[in-house]
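Homework help board

Subject: predicted structure for assignment chain

Our instructor gave us this sequence and asked us to write out the predicted structure in token form, then describe one feature. I got the tokens but I'm not sure how to describe them. Can anyone check?
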Amino acid sequence: MTAALAASWSVTMRYAREAADHFWCAVEDQCPGTLPEREAAVFLAAFGRLVSGGDDPAGRAALLTVLGRAYRRYRLLPHQLPSRPRSSRRCPGR
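My token output:
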């Protein structure tokens, strides 16, 4: 982890709700109905913590477990995303 990444994630987490809303809208634009809005905050927090977190093996394993389950449950597979973003009525400003 770099210091810049850790600082960036700290700033992002100051605006956790807005970041989760933005993340969910991005997923919803690409693949509508894939990720429930209520799950976006948990998914984003786990992903961000994994990327910017320390090297604690047990913590990383737990985060990978959470992300892996969400990945499979909601079928968040990169090859299933359309090549162009779609407009979503539920995401204002998009």
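Reply (TA_rk): Your tokens look well-formed. For the description, you could write something like this. DSSP finds four helices and no strands in the chain. That's the kind of observation they're looking for.
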